[in-house]
Description:
Keywords: Heme, Iron, Metal-binding, Monooxygenase, Oxidoreductase. By secondary structure, the chain is α+β, with helices and mostly antiparallel strands.
Amino acid sequence: MHDQYGPIVRINPDELHIRDSKQYEVVYSGKRDKWPPAATMAGMEMQTFATVPHDLHRKRRAANMPLMGKRVIVDAVPLIHSKASKLRDAFDAAAGSGQPLELGVTCLAYTTDVVGEHFSQQSLGMQDDSRKARQWKTATHMIATMTPVIKQFPWFLKPALLLPPAVMDKMAPDMAALLGVHRDMQVRAKAFLDEVRHKPANHSGYEKHDRPATLFHSIYEHPGPPEEKSVTRLFQEGVNVIIAGSETTARVLTRALYELTVNRDALIKTRHELRDTATRLDRSVEELTLTELEHLPWLAAVIKEALRIAAIPTSRLPLQAHEPLQYKQWTTPAMTPVSLTPYDVLYDPDIFPEPSSFQPDRWLTASDDGTLELHTALERFFVIFGKGPRMCQGINLAYAELYLALAILITSFDLDLFDVVKERDIDYTADCFLGETRADSPGVRVLVKKIGPEGA
């Protein structure tokens, strides 16, 4: 459509779509409402992601932030590290058995347990129960494939939640898994509110200015009217955090491991960088701090390129500016829904030459003293987490999970692909807000080989 009609197109009676990477920051910065038809895809209007008005979104975002800031995530590193160690144990077990390991399930178990324990202080136990992890992977896939349906019929979830679980198990077992997540979070939210309302003087369990114990505490403690502390508000935000915070990061970790397996030169450079740094600091790789890992140029570049090439959000993201927007010779009136598609930016060949090729070195440049550092010129086009006031709040946690897991796995194991077909198991063939691979994909499976400290 853009090839025929130009960089700005009216794609339906109400909405304009732009394909121009340099315009992304303009569209997504400043005071913006979410276009209501786009907000309905979640089927839960009280979660932050689905909030339409800018001012209300800002307040809900602020209520979540005490558990998402950089300092809080640094404090959570021991938790993340413990889950990354369990992830290594899963790879160890696969190496010992000689059986293929499905990266998607294993990585999702890791990220889900991190998110669950960080935001609720309750481990979901995915890493300890492979059957439960596979069911959760099926459920997240169901959530993705149901998104286009829920976007058109946002009322669908409410009556479905009223059906007895046994009925849903027989009618649609995958859908039952999704509804089970909703029901479980509802029960937790109600139990939390029942408890704090019976203990008004000491409901939070922490002193003022300290880190909230859970996401529910964070929202409940934030100033706001009663409806912002309701069961519905709490459970919907909880569902959003668990699903969005686990599936997306797991996909990026899976893609990073796949690309490093295919592109061994990048793997070896990153592995040597990690080992050399650990040797210089007289520590093991597992003892390197998050800050130290973040300053390793090759590891940072691998993670950035994995995030870019995964390009998980494949749908457009329409927002409404409170002021007229100027794009070249066109002026769009205030409150006109305007969107770009993150995938278009991340795969723009004018910004990222050979965009389908995994090239971590595109993010690297030599400093004056000859050492490598991250190339800041591309940062404005790194839109995987979005831009502006609706940027993904989970960015700090996602980065921490990726740095800690990859550092351990890269220096401990070699992987060989097991019956992986790129067109079937890696490339997106469907847009369900997140990109989806072919329905017959068995996932990204690998054979794991343990390597010693000096392994190439």
